[in-house]
Design a protein that fits this description.
Helix content: 40-55%
Radius of gyration: 24 Å
CATH superfamily of the largest domain: NADH Oxidase
Strand order of the largest sheet: 1-2-4-3
Bound molecules: flavin mononucleotide
Number of domains: 2
Shape: globular
Number of helices: 15
Distance between the termini: 91 Å
Number of strands: 10
CATH topology of the largest domain: NADH Oxidase
Length: 395
């Protein structure tokens, strides 16, 4: 009797297994390439970091510097209108990050950051920039009018740091504290009567700041609308990163290269998984490894002019820190919760905690952050280029 051998021979088994392995490996390489595992920091969405000094006209080059500024959730809430000798910076209210920023506090701070980059670039291009903040009292979207007058070109160290500055969300070196002179130097950058920099650099101050920061993160992810509005800016898929050129990416999370690549390789995490990662990271990495925490505070946290001034100072601090080899990351959840409580008219739990932390009724916290020395290189986040942010009028 001939029995049908249902098992393949050893040689045909090896052939099939080999082919399957090639197919799986090929699929892996394809997915790896598709998800930008080999291409961090490259592609159209990252071009603005490389070609910011290549635009045709000086005013376009000044705007190209503005585009590289720090801004909330990488929402890039801006348009730039260029005329012969002036630039208008206009808020794009459609890019508000929902109830994460219900009163547009962060939006105006981010616009202030863009102003600072443009002022530095204007000097390098041979202009003195006269800055008029909110020049039209009937139009809150006109954030600033920059009037450019010819002057001797001055490329400052801060200007040179513009393409090197990136938000660093990784662990900082716990053995490397910030020297008193470093804190003093940053204090001097906050030289505006409406803005004050508070430091939390001893164990007690850091402990209080850390506790409030973690509590704020927990409250934020427990607020479904805040969680949804934050997640709306999460970009995991590489083609979406390239297309939209905005939002928060895996590359910008400060993960180790291996973990980052594994995470890119895996399917998109859910919003809830991302929220859990975010709180755990804050509790276990961001807070315990910081060398110091700071809070930029203003006299009136609802005043858009003061927010713009604060943004200019934050950008200067971040650029200066970049030149000094420091790592910096805003940690805004405590203010985001304070704003949200105010919006919902609910008890000011985080609002009161932040007021107590600052401990001076004359000042209102609007920009908390962490500082230290880096343990790894932080990667750039995507940017929309000139074509997307400079509206073109028919001539
Ligand atoms: C007002 C404001 C608030 C921010 N809040 C946070 C924050 O809470 N956590 C964080 O990791 N980054 C925060 N950032 C940093 C932005 O996410 C970052 O600037 C943006 O994603 C662009 O990346 P880049 O700074 O590396 O160019 C904030 C920035 C600004 C201007």
């Amino acid at each position: 009797m001939i029995t049908q051998n249902t098992h393949p021979s050893r040689s045909s088994f090896l052939k099939v297994a080999g082919a399957a392995l090639v197919a799986v490996a090929g699929g892996c390489v394809w997915r790896a390439a598709d998800q930008g595992i080999f291409s961090a920091g490259t592609g159209l969405a990252y071009e603005p970091w490389k070609n910011w000094q290549d635009a045709a006209t000086p005013l376009e080059r000044i705007v190209a510097a503005g585009i590289l500024a720090s801004n909330p959730h990488n929402s890039q809430p801006w348009f730039f209108y260029i005329s012969t000798s002036a630039i208008n910076l206009v808020a794009d209210f459609e890019r508000q990050i929902g109830v994460i920023d219900p009163f547009r506090r962060e939006m105006y701070i981010g616009l202030g950051c863009a102003i600072e980059n443009m002022v530095l670039a204007a000097a390098a291009e041979g202009f003195q920039a006269g800055v008029h903040l909110l020049p039209d009292s009937t139009d809150a979207s006109l954030a600033a009018h920059l009037e450019l007058k010819a002057a001797a070109p001055q490329a400052s160290e801060l200007y040179a740091s513009i393409p090197k500055r990136h938000t660093d969300r990784s662990a900082y070196d716990p053995t490397h504290p910030l020297a008193a002179e470093t804190l003093d130097a940053m204090d001097r950058l906050a030289n505006n009567e409406n803005v004050h920099l508070f430091w939390f650099s001893d164990a007690t101050g850091k402990g209080k700041f850390g506790q409030i920061a973690v509590a704020a993160c927990e409250a934020l992810v427990a607020d479904e609308q805040q969680s949804l509005d934050s997640h709306a800016w999460w970009r995991q898929d590489w083609s979406v990163v390239q297309q939209r050129a905005d939002g928060i990416t895996l590359d910008a999370q400060g993960l180790s290269p291996i973990i980052n690549n594994i995470a890119k390789f895996l399917p998109d995490g859910s919003r809830q998984q991302n929220d859990q990662f975010f709180v755990k990271n804050m509790r276990e990495i961001n807070i315990p490894t910081a060398a110091a925490f700071g809070i930029l505070a203003v006299n009136d946290g609802m005043d858009n002019t003061q927010r713009l001034e604060c943004g200019r100072i934050w950008q200067r601090i971040h650029l200066w820190g970049t030149g000094q080899g420091l790592a910096l990351q805003p940690l805004n959840q405590m203010c985001e919760r304070a704003d949200r409580e105010r919006q919902l008219n609910s008890p000011p739990v985080l609002g009161q905690a932040v007021r107590d932390l600052v401990g001076d009724d004359r000042w209102q916290a609007i920009m908390p952050f962490r500082a230290g020395y880096p343990t790894r290189v932080s990667l750039p986040s995507p940017r929309r280029g000139l074509l997307q942010v400079v509206p073109h009028t028919e001539s």
